Design the sequence.
């Protein structure tokens, strides 16, 4: 019986994470959820937020954007538009991106553009939250 | 017999051409590297997306979506992804040869790239829309194309959507390929295509019934259009990578040919020059002997 999960986090730019893990916590659209091995097959969406990966008793934090998750008994596949490990987040840069997005929202923009800006804003906020949490 | 001056002039002009093609080759090779990287980086995402999609549509039970609907094909739309500029070898010729195989009457074209639009207008095909995309394709551009195709399909204007693009295999090989895009059920054939046979997803193994959260309708309603948008995006990336690779190779060949030409022209020039000198010497000595 498998007691690890094969976790794969893939973004359009790269495969961000691919490893066997013991547990993973996801920011589902209906609230946070923890996934252990032998989980029932599930298909769900995730919201911008943080992923906690537990491997060998160690926890690792990642910031993710919105996306989809496919869970089977032995694997978790996450498709998202952004995924950054907490250690790689450049706080100053992200803060700047957040300010830029907020400024952009204050202007008049088309609905399509607004959605795009809102998404990048949510991504920036998720990254900042992860960074702060890591420090605690 | 051309004079030495004529040959000199030709050498100069060929040299200029070589310089230009060399510069274009450099530019193309720089762009090629970027475009290839982008295309290759997108592949794992596309593969996983297709896998999830295949599992989701198979495991969704009796759920149906308007993008999954199968209809007898009376009219089809072809999204034709070409380049904007020429000078990229046989890339467009090969692509458009494939495009010409579609039935004129029952096919409408959605053109991306200038060459596709020009071809469709020249051969009097029906054009539904023309899109442009930049040198580094943006997701927004792909979304516009994909949305347009989805709307046509949902409204029932077409019963099938096919994407015709140039698949990037390696710097030296690119192949025009037609991929069914809508209705979505056909997508299952696609994933094996882009990414080689090794990643073929057997449908049987995915006969697990998935739970959906919040609900199948909501998850699939989000997933399907997004997957399609991304698919088109990946096609654009592949087409761009192919374009730059093909241009790089074409320009390299042109430069090599020009260099070859310069070599043989220089040889001819030197021979002629030597012949002229010999002739002049002969004339002088003959004149001297006659006088003496």
Sequence:
């Amino acid at each position: 019986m498998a007691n690890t999960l094969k976790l794969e986090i893939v973004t359009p730019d790269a495969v961000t994470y691919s490893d066997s893990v013991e547990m993973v916590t996801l920011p589902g659209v209906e609230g946070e959820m923890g996934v252990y091995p032998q989980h029932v097959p599930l298909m769900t969406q995730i919201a911008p937020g943080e992923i906690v990966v537990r491997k060998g008793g160690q926890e690792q934090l990642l910031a993710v954007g919105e996306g989809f998750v496919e869970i089977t008994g032995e694997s978790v596949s996450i498709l998202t538009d952004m995924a950054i490990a907490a250690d790689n987040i450049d706080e100053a840069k992200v803060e700047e991106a957040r300010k830029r997005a907020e400024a952009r929202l204050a202007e008049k923009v088309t609905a399509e553009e607004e959605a795009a800006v809102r998404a990048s804003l949510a991504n920036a906020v998720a990254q900042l939250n992860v960074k702060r949490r890591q420090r605690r | 017999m051309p004079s030495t001056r004529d040959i000199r002039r030709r050498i100069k002009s060929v040299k200029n051409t070589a310089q230009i093609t060399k510069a274009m080759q450099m530019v193309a090779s720089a762009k090629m590297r970027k475009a290839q990287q982008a295309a290759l980086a997108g592949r794992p995402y596309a593969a996983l997306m297709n896998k999830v999609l295949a599992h989701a549509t198979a495991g969704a039970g009796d759920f149906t979506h308007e993008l999954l609907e199968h209809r007898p094909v009376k009219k089809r739309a072809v999204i034709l992804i070409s380049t904007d500029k020429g000078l990229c070898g046989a890339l467009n010729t090969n692509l458009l040869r494939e495009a010409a195989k579609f039935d004129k009457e029952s096919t409408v074209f959605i053109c991306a790239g200038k060459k596709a639009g020009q071809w469709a207008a020249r051969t009097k095909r029906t054009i539904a829309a023309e899109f442009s995309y930049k040198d580094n394709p943006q997701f927004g551009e792909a979304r516009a194309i994909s949305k347009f195709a989805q709307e046509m399909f949902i409204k029932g204007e077409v019963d099938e959507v096919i994407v015709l693009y140039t698949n990037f295999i390696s710097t030296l090989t690119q192949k025009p390929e037609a991929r069914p895009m809508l209705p979505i059920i056909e997508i299952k054939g696609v994933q094996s295509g882009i990414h080689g046979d090794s990643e073929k997803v057997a449908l049987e193994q995915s006969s697990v019934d998935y739970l959906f959260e919040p609900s199948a309708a909501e998850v699939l309603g989000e997933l399907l259009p997004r997957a399609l948008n991304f698919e088109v995006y990946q096609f654009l990336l592949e087409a761009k990578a192919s374009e730059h690779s093909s241009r790089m190779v074409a320009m390299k060949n042109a430069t090599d040919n020009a260099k070859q030409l310069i070599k043989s022209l220089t040889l001819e020039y030197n021979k002629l020059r030597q012949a002229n000198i010999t002739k002049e010497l002969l004339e002088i000595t003959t004149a001297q002997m006659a006088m003496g």
